Amino acid sequence: MKKVVGTNRSLLFIMLVLTLSIGLAACGGGGSSSISGGTGVATIQGSVPGTVFVAVNNETNLEMGRATATGTPKIFSMDVPTEKNYRFYVMENEGTGNARVYPVYIGMNNVFAMDNSANGQLISLGMVSPDLATGRAIPANSPMLMMGQGVNAMVPSSLAGSAFSMDDVRETMWGYNTMMTSGTMGWEHGTLSFDNNGLGHMTGIVRNGNPLPARDDIPYTMSLSGMILNPGDNTFQCVVSGDMSVMVATFTDNTGGPAMMIAQKRGGLYQTDGSDMTGEWRFQRLTAGSDNTTSGWAYGTMQFVFGSASITSMTTNTGLGGGGNFAFSMDGNGIMTKAGDPSFHGVMSMDKTMIVATDTDGTNPEIWVMMKTPGITFSPSDMMGDWVMHAVSSGNSGSRGWTYGHSVVDASGNDTFSQMMGSAGPVSSAQMTFMMSGGVMTMSGTGGGMGGGMGGGMMGGGIATSTYHGIMNGAKNIMVSNYSDGSGGYPFSIQVK
Hints:
Blueprint lengths: L5 H21 L5 E3 L6 E7 L4 E6 L5 E6 L6 E7 L2 E9 L7 E4 L8 E3 L6 E11 L4 E4 L7 E2 L24 E8 L5 E9 L5 E8 L2 E2 L3 E4 L2 E2 L4 E4 L2 E8 L5 E7 L5 E8 L13 E9 L8 E10 L2 E9 L2 E2 L4 E6 L4 E4 L2 E8 L5 E8 L2 E8 L13 E11 L5 E9 L4 E9 L2 E3 L2 E4 L1 E3 L2 E3 L11 E3 L5 E3 L4 E4 L5 E5 L6 E8 L1
Parallel strand pairs: 2-9
Antiparallel strand pairs: 1-9, 2-5, 3-4, 3-6, 6-7, 6-8, 8-11, 9-10, 12-13, 12-21, 13-14, 14-15, 14-16, 17-18, 18-19, 19-20, 20-21, 22-23, 22-30, 23-24, 24-25, 24-26, 26-27, 27-28, 28-29, 29-30, 31-32, 31-42, 32-33, 33-34, 33-35, 36-37, 37-40, 38-39, 40-41, 41-42
């Protein structure tokens, strides 16, 4: 056999190194390969649902790089000096008032050392996805050249304006409405407040007409990305809107039923003559019952003149619905009541463009979300961006549950749902295509249930596409919708920026 010497030995060594590097990149835990040149520099690549990937020097807390991801999937690439410690962040809806920042974690670490062994290396993170159960971003790969160095909760000044913390909700008060679609089916309303230590307190609780004791010292936590979690309840997942006006949560309540809570920040003054209610309101409504005939959904419009209201149009899961006239009152705190119906409890938003209410129709609990959008122009591009979705479903027992997940809408109205978790476990990703006209969202389709095509829904089941109907608020950071799943279920969804 020929002896390997001189130049041949060098060539063989280079080929061996390249082979090993490529092999490591192919392994799930590898995520690195060599690149030409780049002494003292490593290249980090991956893909993100959003559009920006940020590298921060852990010692100086200054940005070392910011890469905009492009294409389908959205791919980023950046060069960073080696022999430094880094933190990384994924940013969504950047450049808007609805930006969110997810710190990148691998295992229990968000600080990573890259020594000179990373020189000239291509480090592949794979898809870096938001994990809504923790509020972090988790890469698909765990590159060996990024060595975990623990946790640093500091936020660079360049991202501080987009970061959330418990300080944002300390000493604030929120009016909440909750809908439970199974277990002890019904509704609940009350006040959620946060003290100066960030502990939550729920007071003035009324559940299905019965007052309940206060719930004190709830140890909520807030992630950098605006996810509110309850360490004492691993089913609870909540997101706060970028403008800090609304919280939406899903969870399993203490009777084992799926529940959705919508909380609106309190403050400001409201006109007790009812003039704040005057105008046309669009509404989405969910009704819970023991089966698919006593449960259902509705959407339509309601015209208010002070406290006098009339339903001017309504469509339900069974077809066109009837009208109706109602008399409402409002107090100075924006709380609505309805004449002749002690079950009705509504909360108006501080900007006076959204009402969330719960009531009982016969024996069936309902939740309403109403939007007033006078003089606002909408376009399909208003749907674009990254959203956090929560849904709860009523109907047949097998269709009841809750789901939350990440949602990205592109310029064509394609909404991709990922990182989905449901009350029964993980939910498969799905894609839906929306159309928008005047702030109303619909889907097209032929055949299938209810005259529409069947597709993958937000809760892992189907969707009769012609039944889908959604509305957007005036701030364009909330979308509310409902539809029929084709199996006797009626999902009710809220997406929040």
